[in-house]
Amino acid sequence: MMRLYSKKVFVAETDRLGKGLYARKDIAKGEIIFIVKGTLVEDSYNENYADLPNSLPVRKNFWLDPFDTNPWRYINHSCSPNAGMRGKVTVVAMKNIRGGGGGGGEGIQNL
What we know:
Elements: E1 9-13, E2 19-23, E3 32-35, E4 38-42, E5 56-59, E6 62-66, E7 76-77, E8 83-86, E9 90-93, E10 109-110
């Protein structure tokens, strides 16, 4: 299991998408799950995103390239997300998320 900057989540294989992010413990609606931390990169918009595939835009021409151990690298998209952004770098629960410390936690999906 990979060591992440958040004690609330862990990385594990998904059924069909490679690796994903899962709740280690119950997370209440509105609770902060983790903060996206990384290197600030100045670059104009890149349409193919090939240079920074996990980057997060923080302002015009500035992107946050998450550290390898930051949970943001493993969050997956969902049409029914249970996590969202508060501000530019804070990931919060949009609804209650069931945890499962031994690997049975609910997946964390973003918009």
